[in-house]
Amino acid sequence: MTSDATPTLRTGFATTPDGLRLYWRAVGSGPTIVCCNGVGVSLFFWKYLVEHYADHYTVLLWDYRGHGRSDWPPTIEGADLSIDRHAQDLCVVLDAAGVQKALLVGHSMGCQVIYEAYRRFPERVVGLVPMLGTAGRTLETFFDFSGSPKYFRMVANFLDRVGDAAHYVVRPALQSPLAWAVTRNFKLVDPYYAKRDDMLAYLRHLSGIDLRMFIHIVLMCNEHDAWDLLPQIRVPVLVIAGENDAFTPGWLSRKIAAMIPNSDYLMLADASHAALIEQPETILHRMDRFLKERGVFL
User: Fold this and answer.
1) Whole-structure pTM over 0.85, yes or no?
2) What 3-state class would DSSP assign to 249?
3) Which of 82, 94, 132, 260 has the lowest tally of Cβ within 10 angstroms?
4) Do 96 and 12 touch, CB atoms closer than 8 A?
5) Whole-angstrom Cα distance, residue 24 to residue 10?
6) What is the DSSP track for 9-56?
7) Is residue 224 exposed (0-12), middle (13-18) or buried (19+ Cβ within 10 Å)?
């Protein structure tokens, strides 16, 4: 979907009840598609979706608290970094951008955010596209390893003890040229599909995030549970999974699709957790079909 006209662009900040400013950007005009990031990710991960849809839709992007251009919580200790809080923040962003109803698209943690948003304000949701994410208790299926919750709690305790000192080691590592090589060699992304520049943008952004906040958000993902909600969803849903997604195993996405009444399902061959930037053409082609066949914006 392309045209010669330059899509309209609006940007702004939404202020949360606890006084934080959340950055948002709206590209294009027409019915609204809202993109909800994974943890540690900013707006750049959606660039192919924006390019594809901004000629005919409004694509609304936003940064979670502590991410991108949004404000950081004053302190990590006691900060509300829960999925429920992010869903409430999304409502504030919709209001600030003047959006009444939207298709909610989520990647990774963003899947949990859009499920919780549907629970909170279903009247504002015309459809859901959860990509490469679960419905709750994230760490219990992370790498299909039952010890993941214990491991992440140990990391959180360690970071709380060492404080900012950990940044002096981790940040240079993430900014190093070796970071891309490690990412490819350990197959955290598909080494044939993923583009270096796309992943470097992610690594640079991740290096600027407070590591304690990152780990505590991950732990909050494990506290969240929307599995009970899935059978109650009454809007069109397209579940997108990756064959080689170690973070959200394929069997988990199939279970989600089976629990949501009349949902659509796409399994991406060879795709990792970063399929959004590895196989955007396939994802967007299937989304086009979904929008048309399910009459999402009618």
Assistant:
1) yes
2) coil
3) 82
4) yes
5) 8
6) EEEEEEEPTTS-EEEEEEESSSSEEEEEPPTT--GGGGHHHHHHHTTT
7) buried
Beta-sheet strands, E only, within 199-263: 238-242
Residue 156 included in any domain: no
Asked, for residue 61, whether it belongs to a domain, the answer is: yes
Number of structural domains the chain divides into: 1
CB neighbours of 150 closer than 8 A, spacing ≥ 6?
A: none
Residue 106 is inside which H or E element, if any? Answer: strand 102-107
Burial of 58 (0-12, 13-18, 19+ CB in 10 A): buried
Domain of 258?
Answer: 9-135+224-293
**Within a domain: 155:** no
Within-domain flag for 185:
no
Query: 184 by DSSP, 3-state: which?
Result: helix
- Condensed to tens digits (0 to 9), the pLDDT of residues 254-281 reads 999 999 999 999 999 999 999 999 999 9
Is the pLDDT confidence value at 2 over 90? no
55: CATH: 3.40.50.1820
Helix (H/G/I), strand (E/B), else coil: 111: helix
Residue position matching structure tokens 């963003």 = 110
